[in-house]
Write a structure and sequence with these properties.
By secondary structure, the chain is α/β, with parallel strands linked by helices. It has a domain at 25-149 and 167-201 and 252-262: Rossmann fold, CATH 3.40.50. 45% of the residues lie in helices and 22% in strands. Helix 10 (212-221) packs antiparallel against helix 12 (232-249) and helix 11 (223-230) crosses helix 12 (232-249). It starts with a helix and ends with a strand.
Length: 265
């Protein structure tokens, strides 16, 4: 790009107008349309692995009438989940339990669907985790996996810093490695939706998510004040989370939604 090209004879206002227009992005709740497409209903049992505060489990219980086991290893998430279940109209359909993807507290073939949202990046041994998922899933059952992966725009040094601060396992950030683990565990990729930044665009347009670029700027400028107020650990988590969101919006990371099917054996 030359200076002449930069300040050349092109319509800046028209270009800005195109950049500012909405592309009508799908919202993150569209993941439940994917669940609906699999025919989940009141007779089905769903495992929400890495269920955090059981919010997604409760949404599925309410929408589909299914039974849900929400499994998470973090004590704070379990406490929040049990509180949310106790207060929710459909809480009787959701069971919150301690567990990990490598050790799921359930019997063989117990579930019709496994729901995994934004937790793959934290899994140390994905091969063992997917093998365990296969064990608890009935033959022919499905697994809906939402995960974030690096693109070729992510530079190695910034990846190293970001993954360390966000508790992401570097090996989990490769989409190709994920697909290899899926096949090794006896799953078939039935569909793939490369969402990219779409859900994040929708949340920005709706004003229901932070402005990650502003957060990064403010946290950098007010670092000492924020650390004094909430502590260094909280600061690092907030800053890394803002960088993570910004990296998705600018294409260094991309979100993908897989539907996997367990083979019939």
């Amino acid at each position: 790009m030359t200076v002449d090209e930069m300040y050349g004879d092109w319509d800046w206002e028209a270009a800005v107008e195109l950049a500012d227009r909405s592309l009508e992005p799908r919202r993150a709740t569209s993941i439940f349309d994917t669940v609906a497409s699999l025919g989940i209903g009141p007779d089905d049992a769903v495992l929400d692995i890495g269920g955090r505060d059981a919010r997604h489990g409760l949404l599925m219980a309410e929408r589909f009438g299914c039974r849900v086991m929400s499994v998470d290893p973090a004590a704070a998430n379990l406490a929040d989940g049990r509180k949310a279940v106790a207060e929710h109209e459909f809480g009787h359909r959701v069971d919150v339990r301690y567990g990990t993807i490598e050790q799921i507290p359930a019997g063989d073939g117990e579930f019709d669907l496994i729901f995994s949202r934004d937790m793959v990046s934290h899994v140390v041994d994905l091969d063992a985790g997917l093998a365990e998922c296969r064990r608890v899933l009935r033959p022919g059952g499905h697994m809906v996996v939402h995960a974030v992966f690096a693109t070729d725009l992510m530079e190695p040094r910034e990846a190293q810093r970001l993954y360390r601060e966000i508790a992401a396992v570097p090996e989990r950030m490769s989409a190709a490695a994920f697909v290899n683990s899926v096949a090794a565990a006896g799953f078939v990729v039935e569909s793939l939706d490369v969402i990219g930044s779409e859900w994040y665009e929708a949340s920005q347009e709706a004003g229901v998510a932070p402005n990650y670029a502003l957060q990064v700027s403010r946290l950098r400028r007010a670092r000492a004040d924020v650390i004094a107020a909430v502590g260094e650990t909280a600061y690092r988590i907030m800053y890394a989370n803002a960088l993570w969101g910004l990296s998705i919006l600018i294409g260094k990371l991309e979100t993908r939604l897989y539907v996997l099917r367990r083979d019939g054996s």
